[in-house]
Design goal:
The protein is mostly helical. Helix content is about 50%, strand content about 10%.
């Protein structure tokens, strides 16, 4: 939907009106046939129709383009009243800057920021409302440090609130201790598995070293036996030599 034409000051060119809602163009798009529409209006129209609502030429969403620059400039220069005029705002500004003004307008109706409060209040009166809002929160005047709503003043019991807070803290502490315990047990199990795996690897390496040592000792014994045999052969050869 476009901007209500009744809000504008002075004459508005026919070419700046939406061909569907007949209000002043808002976020405009233009068809190849040069008819202009509000984005929301033309998208809604094309859900059920495939042609221009003015001349019935076939159009598609992909063919829509932004408004010509000169038309966009003419549109932005139009002067209009703030939407909060009925609440007392007398601001008149260009269409280009109206959104920025209305976001900050002191006469805008905004919700109370206190949780649970459904009051809509003018921005300029918000501070005054917050000071007396029954849903406003404050710290307990008795010094327990608990934050209470004004509507709960009569029901507030410092001892009960502190007891409840203590129970919550105790429960939270127990949960954290259990989490820390489970985490430590998990780490210990992981380290234990790692150590068992490491021990197994070391044991295999020791067995391999023993096997190598056994082979070496066997080789040494074989060499010593061969040496004795060689020495005996030499002695026998020496005896034979002497006899000759």
């Amino acid at each position: 939907m476009g901007y209500d034409i009744e809000r504008f000051v002075g004459y508005v060119n026919e070419g700046l009106l939406c061909s569907i809602c007949r209000d002043v163009l808002e976020d405009p798009l233009q068809a190849p046939c040069e008819h202009a529409f509000c984005t929301a209006c033309i998208h809604g129209w094309l859900v059920h129709h495939g042609n221009c609502p003015e001349d019935r030429q076939m159009i598609d969403v992909s063919l829509l383009r932004p408004l010509y620059r000169y038309m966009k400039n003419d549109l932005n220069r139009l002067q209009l009243h703030c939407k909060n005029r009925e609440y007392g705002c007398e601001m008149v500004c260009s269409l280009e800057s109206i959104d920025r003004h209305e976001r900050e307008c002191e006469y805008s109706q905004i919700p109370c920021s206190n949780a649970g409060c459904t009051v809509q209040i003018e921005r300029r009166n918000l501070d005054g409302h917050l000071a007396v809002c029954e849903y406003r929160s404050r710290e307990c005047p008795n010094g327990c440090g608990y934050t209470i709503l004004s509507a709960e003043d009569t029901q507030h019991n410092c001892v009960a609130e502190l007891r409840t807070e203590l129970e919550l803290l105790r429960s939270e502490m127990i949960c954290r201790v259990e989490e820390a315990k489970h985490e430590m047990e998990s780490r210990l199990d992981s380290q234990r598995r790692h150590m068992v795996q490491k021990e197994s690897i070391l044991q295999n390496e020791i067995e391999e070293l023993k096997s190598q040592m056994s082979r070496m000792m066997s080789d040494v014994r074989s060499l010593m036996a061969a040496e004795r045999q060689h020495r005996q052969e030499l002695e026998q050869a020496e005896l034979e030599k002497r006899e000759l």
